[in-house]
Known about the structure:
This protein is of the alpha/beta class. Helices cover 29% and strands 14% of the residues. It has four helices and seven strands. It has a five-stranded mixed beta sheet with strand order 4-3-7-5-6, with helices on one face. A two-stranded antiparallel sheet has the order 1-2.
Amino acid sequence: MARKPTDVSVLHGHRVVTGPELRATFEAAGDPDDPVRLRRRVVHGVVLVLLLGLIVGAVITALAIVNGQLRIPAAEVSDEPAALCPAASFDYTPNEKINLNVFNSTSRPGLARTVADELLGRKFVVGAVANTDAGYRGVAAVLSGAAGQSAAFSVQRNVPGSDYFQDGRADASVDLILAGDYKALAAADQVDQTPGKLSCPRESRRIADDAKWPVIPTAAPTP
């Protein structure tokens, strides 16, 4: 019995792709006129050009900075201390509603007691009366917390030339620290009781030491 001719294009039931067919397939896939391939090539080219431009620009900028041809602006640090002076205007608080402590930071003995007695005569409610150390030069420092600013304003009107400082106390009490330039209180019948603002430090009248901003006693008061 004659054998049936073998079909070389079929192997185990699968069609065998010939060389010419495979080459024709790749040539069709690699058609240079394919719009999809052209678009991809354009996109890739644009991306490469942009990356190259960024690299070149970064190198040029770095060289300019190193050579001093380009300066990057930086925020300037101000030497001025932060403004602590309240901007609000205050009404004059009646003397009898003000709790006031009087301290003497000078070498004059009995100054705190003398001034405290004068303030008592004006109906201020005087508490502590003592000597203390304070890093302040001027007439007098008036200290209070935020709650005592109106009272501090009234004290300043009685102590011409005094400077106001705010500290962290929560109550409305006020400290009056007498300093070397203190001479006298304003005459009782000439105290200005119209509304106004607190008077804050003048840099020429205090020690140039940022650690003492605001100025507070540096030691516990001593009798």
